[in-house]
């Protein structure tokens, strides 16, 4: 990498870290938190994310050449991408009827690509810098280190790696304590050694999804009391929930305001995301849904349900 390019890139990242568009100074409440210890050997809970895009060819250039996914299935309007060549992790769908998502609506804040090691994150950082693609931030969240950018349709993306779970900090109520500190780039870049970027490594997964919500109380009732996820962090404008004591599988915020409307159905952005449940978790959630007013379709192993902010979720039983 040319020295001037690296200097300019570090300046851009530093500015992005200072003006980063969210803060994770999370404060727990008196509510009971899941205080178990997360194990990195847990199976992924987020399956694939499906996005509605304006130009499939343009999006494929971005997600293949810049992010590092590979295509495993493609037709004229749809493409399925993966990091390991087998498991679908991202579906891109183009339709002529799609329109830009209005500002100040619910929907995707970002989806997060979890890479296995700090070296993998460093390689992504250098590859993006060499490509000249703009980043929006580079942050240390205490439990993870992360890069932020947006795709050509302004869908937010996080690329991150987790610290060992025994380093994750909790507050007095058992909730995870996060932060948004500037990522120390020198230490991260030192991880590269002689390695070269060859795309996303096979151990990559979709680690979490972050949503702009309309009402956090309604979201909590849906995700916690109905679907059975655990609260792991919460304040007046943010709610993080997960399974298996992870720092978050689904994040929600109202930083753009309370009571946001959902976008039109044919808006660019999030079409749906998938969750993996055990059979016991699935049966329990289905029983709760049957007693609720939430819209859903279900059989014994798969259900589609819409959250209070209008986000569609496909829940599978993980065998």
* Overall radius of gyration: 19 Å
Sheet with the most strands?
9 strands, mixed
User: Percent of residues in beta strands?
Assistant: 25-35%
Mean pLDDT: 91
Q: Termini, distance in Å?
A: 45 Å
Helix/sheet category = alpha+beta
The CATH homologous superfamily is termed 2,3-Dihydroxybiphenyl 1,2-Dioxygenase, domain 1
The 3D shape can be described as: globular
**CATH structural class:** Alpha Beta
Domains, number: 1
Count every helix, treating DSSP H or I runs of 4 or more residues as helices: 6
The CATH architecture designation is: Roll
What is the third-level CATH name, the topology? Answer: 2,3-Dihydroxybiphenyl 1,2-Dioxygenase, domain 1
Counted beta strands:
17
Q: How do the strands line up in the largest sheet?
A: 9-6-7-8-5-10-13-12-11
Helical content class: 10-25%
Order of helices and strands: HEHEEEEHEEEEHEHEEEEHEEE
Unreliable parts: 14-30
Protein name: Glyoxalase
Organism: Paenibacillus sambharensis
Domain VOC: 45-162, 205-318
InterPro entries: Glyas_Bleomycin-R_OHBP_Dase (IPR029068), Glyas_Fos-R_dOase_dom (IPR004360), VOC_core (IPR037523)
Give an overview in words.
This is Glyoxalase. Residues 45-162, 205-318 form the VOC domain. InterPro entries: Glyas_Bleomycin-R_OHBP_Dase (IPR029068), Glyas_Fos-R_dOase_dom (IPR004360), VOC_core (IPR037523). With 319 residues, this protein is α+β, with helices and mostly antiparallel strands. It has one domain (3-317): 2,3-Dihydroxybiphenyl 1,2-Dioxygenase, domain 1 (Roll). Helix content is 22%, strand content 30%. The protein has helices spanning 3-18, 56-67, 118-131, 185-189, 216-226, 279-290, and strands at 46-53, 70-74, 78-82, 90-94, 107-114, 137-140, 144-150, 156-162, 181-182, 205-212, 230-235, 238-242, 250-253, 269-277, 296-298, 302-306, 312-317. The strands form two sheets. The chain has a nine-stranded mixed sheet.
């Amino acid at each position: 990498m040319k020295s001037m390019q690296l200097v300019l890139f570090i300046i851009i990242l530093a500015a992005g870290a200072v003006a980063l568009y969210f803060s994770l100074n999370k404060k727990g409440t008196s509510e009971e938190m899941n205080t178990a210890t997360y194990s990195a050997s847990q199976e992924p809970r987020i399956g694939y994310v499906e996005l509605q895009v304006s130009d499939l060819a343009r999006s494929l250039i971005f997600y293949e050449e810049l992010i590092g996914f590979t295509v495993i299935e493609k037709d004229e309007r749809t493409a399925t991408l993966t990091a390991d060549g087998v498991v679908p992790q991202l579906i891109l769908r183009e339709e002529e009827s799609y329109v830009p998502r209005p500002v100040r609506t619910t929907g995707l804040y970002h989806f997060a690509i979890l890479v296995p090691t700090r070296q993998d994150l460093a390689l992504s950082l250098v590859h993006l810098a060499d490509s000249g693609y703009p980043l929006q931030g580079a942050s240390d969240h205490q439990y993870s280190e992360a890069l932020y950018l947006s795709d050509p349709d302004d869908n937010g993306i996080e690329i991150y790696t987790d610290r060992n779970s025994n380093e994750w900090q909790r507050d007095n109520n058992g909730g995870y304590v996060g932060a948004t500190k500037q990522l120390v780039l020198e230490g991260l870049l030192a991880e590269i050694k002689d390695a070269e970027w060859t795309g996303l490594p096979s151990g990559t997964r979709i680690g979490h999804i972050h949503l702009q919500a309309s009402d956090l109380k309604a979201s909590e009732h849906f995700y916690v009391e109905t679907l059975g996820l655990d609260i792991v962090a919460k304040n007046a404008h943010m709610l993080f929930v997960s399974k298996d004591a992870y720092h978050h599988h689904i994040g929600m915020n109202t930083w753009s305001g309370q009571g946001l409307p959902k976008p039109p159905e044919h808006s660019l952005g999030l079409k749906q995301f998938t969750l993996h449940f055990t059979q016991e978790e699935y049966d329990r959630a289905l029983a709760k849904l049957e007693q609720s007013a939430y819209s859903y379709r279900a059989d014994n192993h798969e259900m589609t349900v819409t959250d209070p902010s209008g986000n569609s979720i496909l829940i599978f039983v993980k065998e």
